[in-house]
Write a structure and sequence with these properties.
CATH topology of chain C: SH3 type barrels
CATH class of chain C: Mainly Beta
Shape of chain C: elongated
Structural class of chain B: alpha+beta
CATH architecture of the largest domain in chain B: Alpha-Beta Complex
Order of helices and strands of chain C: EEEEEH
CATH superfamily of the largest domain in chain B: PurM-like C-terminal domain
Strand order of the largest sheet of chain B: 9-11-7-12-10-13-14
Order of helices and strands of chain B: HHEEEHEHEEEHEHEHEHEHEEE
Number of domains of chain B: 2
Radius of gyration of chain C: 19 Å
Radius of gyration of chain B: 22 Å
Largest sheet of chain B: 7 strands, mixed
CATH architecture of chain C: Roll
Oligomer: heterotrimer
Number of helices of chain B: 9
Helix content of chain C: 10-25%
Largest interface: A-C, 53 and 32 residues
Strand order of the largest sheet of chain C: 3-2-1-4-5
CATH topology of the largest domain in chain B: Phosphoribosyl-aminoimidazole Synthetase, Chain A, domain 2
Strand content of chain C: 35-45%
Distance between the termini of chain C: 34 Å
Number of strands of chain B: 14
Number of strands of chain C: 5
Number of domains of chain C: 1
Structural class of chain C: alpha+beta
Distance between the termini of chain B: 52 Å
Chain lengths: 363, 358, 86
């Protein structure tokens, strides 16, 4: 019988892998995952409880909810408030605080904000609501970009004039660079996001592993996948190697999904992007290519942004880079809670702060 | 039937049309249309001796009805669900079973219900009839009578088709001390069956998440099963149904009320495969999905086997199982032991659970 | 990011020129766009995220991870014999 992502067999194997990690670890190591889904899985199964105390798992900026800039959230709010607009988004973004509001509150005030499961749903909405402008909030890492690109191409083929996207996608490799280049970097090895790599392959990480002498292991999401990914990272660290290895071969190849990559390159190009709490990372985001610029909601709607204010208490940036723990934050669990979040990492279930709040109360 | 003086909120056609396939504002005006609606639609499905008397209030002679060793129990609930119809149920069935179950959770036998209906202009009368038929069937199964009712009509756009409010009246034996504060260390936590079905059935019926399944809502009146349970195990400590907020939120509430730590075993919690698949797909957690036909019972350890046996004999408790224990006194904590043997803490649902990509 | 689950392709068709499919996830079916994995055939398993297929499930047997597990099995057998505890 399978319970969620585990079976009696995989439980046994996971424990065996964890025991092996215990056996071979001789020194403290910090391993970062940059994937909200992996953070969620680690928390859900309490995997950090099975690791030796020398291994610290750092939850990196892998949750697109947490890293979408304040500016873009405000953009979204302004567009949603326009007349004859249907603003669509993945559910993750609804409660992310802007300067003074969020999409959920905007909906309560009368804005037509709708949660969609797929960007294709937004295109369908545009088809069935010709008198409205339908905008899709394009957040997410490389995993989600092909879906957005394909949906946009589909809209283009239909000649839809009332569909647009607010580009907010981000890329993993530049984020890794930014983290590793930081003078107070603590990361010794990375678990690369398995589903990002299903699309992009892992060839991009080879120069990173080499120049920063940091092992990178492509890892999945089930407890066993994560355990194996961590084991392979620790083996590399203990042996002084720094390569890119693949612990998720059932969906990931070195080259990745070429068709999907082709769609991304057809529609998007790298642009500088601001990561909330971290700052601008060069060429870490995706913007629409000239041919598809008419799908950019940022151009269609004339948005004037006022002075943007982050909560002075929120130390999200430091947490997202693994320099601080959520518990180091003065507002953690007091002024900043899942019901009243001051910053994005407390909103998303995968945000480091929310995860800490919910799963670490046991200690 | 209670009816106010008609309020003139705008032009009302002076000639009442008796052939309507939709609710119109006139149906709420208290005049001929209202009476037509009551007689031909409401009473057709909900009619009984008390309701049909047509007075402003119901005369119950409760003093003769309530046995000496019993206490009166009252519960009230508002029901809003969109869409109105979904696999396994509808708002009508939900409104009856919801209140029947609330009354039963204290160990009381539900006897009478009142129901108020806010109808939206434009609601098809065939929908109303379907809902009332559903209520009649549920009331029949639960052996409760609807003794007072009222209906009003709002303009189009001011309500979601139909809102229903129900109040339940019953009585409970003095000897039962069933409440959220009564869980004790050493007690055992029982669950009557698989969770998440109702939440997913409603999400599917909304149609905007684009998935199809055979999943049905579990709406059911649990008073029969509860009566059997109490007959076999009179010293049940806590009973509650995990509705909004799901199993996790409900157990957190109980843990806080009783000031105890409850620990669940994840492997024991029954979840249908299709429900788990749907939750995985959408990023929803079955522990927080609403259930409308499930019972949590917390009983002393020595009564656990008999309690389970009793529940399993009933059609709504066939898959009853022990899911955890009450560990110790504390400020109120809910823990979950994962299949890997690790432990995590469960909190109340914060806000709305939304489909996510992350 | 990356909530992705595997499902089986049970129907393939086109909508307005875009390759679509019906995918079955253990009793739940969904419409999934397979323009991103045009080689998907009926009966294939695909990894699905946000209504799109990310990649096909590879049945590659000789993989690094299987090797790790096999090595661990052997290690445990050699050192702990038949001590199969909980």
């Amino acid at each position: 019988m399978t319970i969620g992502k585990v079976s009696p067999e995989s439980i046994r194997q996971t424990k065996a892998v964890m025991e092996e990690i215990q056996r071979i670890t001789t020194r403290p190591w910090n391993i970062m995952e940059i994937c909200g889904g992996q953070t969620h899985s680690i928390m859900e199964y309490g995997l950090d409880q099975l690791l030796p105390s020398e291994i610290t798992l750092i939850h990196g900026p892998g949750c697109p909810v947490c890293v979408t800039s304040l500016e873009l959230v405000e953009h979204a709010l302004q567009i949603a408030a326009q007349p004859d607009v249907i603003f669509t988004s993945f559910g993750d973004m609804l409660r992310v605080p802007g300067s003074s509001s969020d999409l959920n509150s905007a909906r309560a005030k009368g804005a037509d904000v709708r949660v969609v499961y797929s960007p294709m749903d937004a295109v369908k909405m545009a088809q069935s609501n010709p008198d409205k402008q339908v905008i899709f909030f394009a957040i997410g890492f490389e995993t989600t970009v092909p879906a957005i690109a394909a949906s946009l191409l589909h809209a283009d083929r239909q000649g839809l004039e009332n569909f647009s996207i607010l580009p907010a996608n981000v890329l993993v490799p530049p984020a890794m660079h930014a983290i590793l280049q930081s003078p107070d970097n603590r990361v010794n090895a990375f678990l690369a996001a398995g589903h990002v790599c299903a699309i992009m392959g892992y060839w991009q990480y080879e120069p990173i592993a080499k120049s920063y002498q940091t092992p990178i292991v492509v890892t999945g999401f089930d407890p066993l996948d994560l355990a194996i990914g961590i084991l392979m990272s620790v083996r590399q660290l203990e042996e002084g190697r720094y390569e890119v290895e693949n612990a998720y071969p059932r969906y990931v190849t070195r080259e990745g999904n070429k068709t999907a990559q082709g769609m991304i390159n057809q529609v998007f190009e790298p642009v500088d992007r601001q990561w909330r709490g971290i700052g601008t990372i060069s060429l870490s985001g995706l913007g629409l290519k000239e041919t598809y610029k008419h799908f950019d909601a940022g151009n269609r709607f004339n948005i004037k942004l006022a002075q943007l204010q982050e909560s002075p208490l929120c130390i999200a940036g430091s947490v997202l880079r693994g320099i601080s723990k959520p518990t180091d934050c003065p507002a953690f669990a007091t002024l900043c809670t899942p019901t009243n979040p001051l910053g994005a990492p407390m909103v998303s279930a995968e945000g480091a702060c929310s995860a800490y709040y919910r799963y670490h109360k046991v200690k | 039937m209670d009816s106010d003086f008609p309020v003139m909120e705008g032009p009302i056609c002076p000639i009442p049309l008796s052939q309507h396939d939709q609710i119109v504002i006139g149906h709420g005006a208290g005049g001929v249309l209202t009476h037509d609606l009551i007689r031909n639609v409401f009473q057709k499905y909900l009619g009984n001796v008390i309701l049909n008397q047509g007075n402003d209030a119901a005369l119950l002679q409760l003093q003769q009805q309530i046995p000496e060793d019993q206490k009166l129990v009252v519960s009230t609930d508002a029901h809003i669900v969109s869409p109105l119809f979904f696999a396994g149920g509808d708002i009508g069935k939900l409104s009856i079973c919801g209140t029947v179950n609330d009354v039963s959770m204290l160990g009381a036998v539900p006897k009478f219900l009142t129901a108020t209906f806010i109808l939206e202009e434009g609601l098809p009368i065939s929908d109303l009839e379907r809902i009332l038929a559903s209520m009649a069937q549920a009331a029949d199964e639960a052996q409760v009578k609807i003794i007072a009712a009222d209906t009003k009509v709002t303009e189009k756009g001011k309500s979601d088709g139909i809102f229903i409010s129900t109040t339940g009246i019953g009585w409970v034996n003095h000897r039962y001390h069933i409440s959220g504060q009564s869980a004790k260390p050493g007690d055992v936590v029982l669950l009557s069956g698989p969770i998440g079905n109702h939440g997913i059935a409603v999400a599917e019926a909304r149609g905007n998440l684009g998935f199809r399944s055979q999943i049905q809502s579990d709406i059911a009146p649990l008073n029969g099963m509860i009566a059997a349970l109490l007959e076999a195990v009179p010293n049940v400590h806590v009973m509650r149904d995990p509705t909004r907020g799901g199993l996790a939120t409900t157990l957190v509430e109980i843990a806080c009320q009783s000031k105890v730590t409850i620990r669940l075993r994840e492997e024991s919690i029954p979840i249908d495969r299709a429900v788990r698949s749907a939750c995985d797909m959408l990023g929803l957690d079955p522990l927080y999905m609403a259930n409308e036909g499930k019972l949590i019972a917390i009983v002393p350890a020595e009564n656990a086997d008999l309690a389970l046996e009793t529940l399993r004999k009933h059609q709504y408790g066939k898959r009853a199982v022990q899911i955890g224990v009450v560990k110790s006194e504390s400020d109120g904590l809910l823990l979950l032991k994962t299949p890997l043997g690790t432990t995590r803490h469960l909190d109340m649902l914060a806000g709305e659970m939304l489909p996510r990509i992350c | 990011m990356c909530l992705g689950i595997p499902g089986k392709v049970i129907e393939i068709y086109k909508i307005d020129g875009t390759l679509m499919s019906k995918v079955d996830f253990d009793g739940v079916t969904q419409e999934v766009c397979i323009a991103t994995t045009p080689d998907a055939q009926l009966g294939d398993y695909v990894l699905v995220h946000a209504g799109f297929a990310l990649n096909l499930l590879s049945d590659q047997e000789a993989s690094e991870t299987l090797k790790i597990l096999k090595d661990l099995e052997k290690f445990n057998q050699d050192h702990y014999g038949d001590q199969e505890k909980e």
